[in-house]
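subagent[fold] <- orchestrator: predict structure for attached chain, return tokens only, no commentary.
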Amino acid sequence: MLSFTKSRNAGKKLLQILILFLSITQICFGQWFQQNSGTTNMLWSVHFANNDTGWTVGSEILKTTNGGDNWTSQPSGTDKSLFSVHFTDSNTGWAVGWDWYNGVGLILNTTNSGDNWTNQPSGTTIFLRSVYFVDSKTGWVVGESGTILHTTNGGTDWTSQISGTTTELQSVYFIDSSTGWIVGHSSSIIKTTNGGVDWTSHTSGTTNTLWSVHFTDNNNGWAVGEFGTILKTTNGGENWVSQSIGGLIFLYSVCFTDVETGWAVGYDVNGGVILKTTNGGNEWLSQTSGTTNNLKSVYFIDNNIGWAVGSAGTILKTTNGGVTFIEEEKTDEMPTEFLLSNNYPNPFNPSTKISWQSPVGSWQTLKIYDVLGNEVVTLVNEEKPAGKYEVEFDASPLTSGVYFYQLLVSDLQSKDGKTDNYIETKKMVLIK
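subagent[fold] -> orchestrator:
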């Protein structure tokens, strides 16, 4: 007869506390979870002004005021394609794209959080791809045929800047009103240090198209593109080194929250791709996107909270930085009892191994909680045969502190025909 005495005693008190907290606290399941966009249209770009307020654009404009739990469509005045959105605060923002019907570049502006959007004449028939503002007055828009537009009055007037190239420009990013970078087709990288009066071409070291660029300061920046291209500079773009992962992976967007921590998103033959680094790009680890749809844009407001958007109205969110872990490994020796082992090492930084065993086949769940009972990540949630298992948990995105890991083995059959669960919870300490 199976014995559950240990599970009922060892973790009973702690489990009751966890259940109490979980009943009153919002739980985030998994690394990335789907949000309901209410549309099946392509979403090309996402930007947030704070934890709650954000926008995503495609053939329409969607807004959320509760972190993405709900998204509502905003009247943009157009049903044409919008490829980039950027806000300088919760009220003031721009979206750019192309009016294919009239053959003109689209620039839309709002000063009331998107309740109303007004058209700002671009003065060009060019496909516009990216917009970036350093404040409510000063911004740039880039697009096809080497097009760069600049404004110093919030978009009331746009003037053309000479890029020195005729290639399609895909992404623009500025650190301040003077220093900025643009990337695009044919491995183009151009830089300005005087607000765009002059642009200088820099060698990228690749022939691949670059779709996105992001800098954390005047020196450190990354660009991503087709065929798994990832480039990094530590001297403001004078030189670029490859961090490329190669293969048939197309990376459309990159975002860093500090010089060490960043994400890149795109797609491969299996669907959405999310990559993360916690060491400035020296290593990029794949995160489970949970979608077969292409991902086009990623935006993080801090090391934990971020969104990714893409085809078929896809919106993904993470509240733990997309915590990474290595899948469990099964050993050959068959166990005779239930056991959740102490993690090793403990304390740890940044990763630790968690081992457990089950003498019967069953549905097994292994989760991590913080001290408030909030679920941090689900490491295992599936039916598994009897055996011994081990998972390596990488807590790089988490802050130092006490965490708990809990094993639940469900729906066990006893000799009297009743079902029961094996539950055990243990403590671990992350020290950074």
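orchestrator: received. Logging for downstream: The chain has two domains: 5-28+324-430, 33-318. Residues 270 and 383 are 24 Å apart (CA to CA).
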